[in-house]
Amino acid sequence: MTKLDLPVFADVLAAAKRLEGMAIKTPVIESSWLNDLAGGRVFIKPECLQRTGSFKFRGAWNFISRLNRKDNPGGVVAFSSGNHAQGVAAAAAIKNLPALIVMPADSPVIKIENTKALGAEVLTYDRASEDRNEIAHRQLKARGAVLVPPFDHKYIMAGQGTAALELADWALENHVDIDQVMIPTGGGGLVGGSALVFKTKMPKADIYPVEPALFDDYRRSLIAGEVVSNDVTTGSICDALMTPCSGHVTFAVNKLRLSNGLAVNDHEVCAAMKFAFERLKLVVEPGGAVALAAVLSSKIDCAGKNSALVLSGGNVDAAMFAGIIS
Amino acid sequence: MTKLDLPVFADVLAAAKRLEGMAIKTPVIESSWLNDLAGGRVFIKPECLQRTGSFKFRGAWNFISRLNRKDNPGGVVAFSSGNHAQGVAAAAAIKNLPALIVMPADSPVIKIENTKALGAEVLTYDRASEDRNEIAHRQLKARGAVLVPPFDHKYIMAGQGTAALELADWALENHVDIDQVMIPTGGGGLVGGSALVFKTKMPKADIYPVEPALFDDYRRSLIAGEVVSNDVTTGSICDALMTPCSGHVTFAVNKLRLSNGLAVNDHEVCAAMKFAFERLKLVVEPGGAVALAAVLSSKIDCAGKNSALVLSGGNVDAAMFAGIIS
């Protein structure tokens, strides 16, 4: 078995340096409405306000900023349901690298359109019948391009971890001890990078991955002690979190650092999106709202605690959003 | 003529101290989409993320935090289309003071409901046929309460100015010279407090009040050199900015410090709200979006400049928001 190249905390610090002036330092927000409902303080990290509307620009830039047009004339290829797509497209455009993104045909229109608007070429596939890995690798070979993995890579995880680094640094500056952190989880990149940060800076904090109900492979993998897959490929409104299973790099990092996984259903996700609209004045996409949904539906006890959560993205089609808030 | 008690820059600094730990230090956000459209950098201060969903908590707390239950058993009375209402209700609740708010019957439901949810009593009136001043003063007398003016008071203006103070301090820390600032304007409290800040900290910056087309009394007052009123009391979707005319305290501060006024129509406001949804992932109410609308509709030239604008509030009913983004 190949030895995995795992990220460590220092990689997150290095990523933060690389991201300075490129990514937005998103704020930490507190809502008196949410605190009242939770019975404790809940600190919110709104990555929907990040460049390209999700945290994914962080990892993409940490990876792509090391490439250049001369050595990588074939540019980059990525597969993504849409947020990694936009992060890669934006990062590649800055580096003047061609980018091809393989996306499910049923991705939200806003994600496909934005990816194209950011200058990338988009190739769609059928989520239920085609293998995105295979399509991407065929393109990689044909173009002599570099693959930008969606989560299972040291640089990607370290980049995503910078969101948690900002959160932890804010908490330390404000003398707040965070007891628990809830992170939307697909392949495990964001939660893994976050776990590296908190287990170094605030080791007592429990880190909970939060997933859509039918896509709770992380929850089950943590119980099994090995990577297990989801039985389905469709059936959730959380398009950003319908990952087949965890990566091996991400799981190696996460299995030692995460508490049990939490899962929320579509109904709870919609309620969280409506709450974010009404109370937080933030546009959050379904997959970005799962951690908030876990708090609002009492899947996690926040009473008397200092909790933190990430709203990981805000790329949602207007028609869906209008329906959910109405 | 009574001498007006005008705020000075030091009042804003004092307000900032008073607001520490009570108000949210809202972030400064930059959007590559907006910069591309504007042809320059545009720094956004999203006060929709403020406690109670608008900047109004700042002024309300700066005023109400000086009162107490023992000396003010009658509590406070305010008139407001809804954002000042929520600011006053939240501040009064913290100080355990009873609060009565006189609101137009056609205020957005979310504003009336939130004001009640924050513990205030709400009295509605007909915007077209009744005088809110008269109703409020009748209640004041009956209750022995203190009036919390919506804008025309030193403490209110100084409180609102803290939003601009955070913006200016951010710009100084980040070595950004702001050339121009666009501020949503009703009675002139926010723009006045902001003008005090910028004319002290970044005196070269031009400050532009932005109003709804039919309610451009500030624009006309600046031309006339005296306070003139609007001819109408209804007819804009910007419920937060349908003020009859400027205050005298606010005008005295503003007439020496503002550049010409800008006005935007409902169509331009809706386009700005949709842009904020799609690109900024922020929920902005009509009145809160006028400065962004001025930039997007080229009412102000941002090419090659460093511009800043405030998104002043996000309290908008779901049905209206759904209609506008769809």
In whole angstroms, how far apart are the ends of chain A?
52 Å
How can the largest sheet of chain A be summarized?
A: 6 strands, mixed
Give me the side-by-side strand order of the main sheet of chain A. 1-2-10-7-8-9
Mean of all residue-level pLDDT scores of chain A: 96
Shape verdict of chain A? globular
Number of strands of chain A: 10
Q: Which percent band covers the strand fraction of chain A? A: 5-15%
Q: Structural class, from secondary structure content of chain A?
A: alpha/beta
In DSSP terms, counting alpha (H) and pi (I) runs of 4 or more, how many helices of chain A? 13
**What oligomeric assembly is this protein in?**
homodimer
Q: Low-confidence stretches of chain A at least 5 residues in length (pLDDT < 50)?
A: none
- CA radius of gyration of chain A: 18 Å
Helix and strand pattern of chain A: HEHEHEHEHEHEHEHEHHEHHEH
Task: Count interface residues per chain for the largest interface.
Answer: A-B, 31 and 31 residues
Q: What does this molecule look like?
A:
2 copies of one chain form a homodimer. Chain A is α/β, with parallel strands linked by helices. Chain A is built from 13 helices and 10 strands. In chain A, the strands form 2 sheets. The first copy, chain A, has a 6-stranded mixed sheet with strand order 1-2-10-7-8-9, with helices on both faces. In chain A, strands 5-4-3-6 form a 4-stranded parallel sheet, sandwiched between helices. In chain A, helix 3 runs parallel beside helix 4 (83-94), helix 4 (83-94) packs parallel to helix 5 and helix 8 runs parallel beside helix 10 (248-254). The longest helix of chain A has 20 residues, at 154-173. Chain A is globular and about 55 Å long. Chain A binds chain B through residues 24-27, 29-30, 32, 46, 48-49, 51, 53, 90, 110, 274, 277-284, 314, 318-319, 321-323, 325-326, and chain B through 24-27, 29-30, 32, 46, 48-49, 51, 53, 90, 110, 274, 277-284, 314, 318-319, 321-323, 325-326.
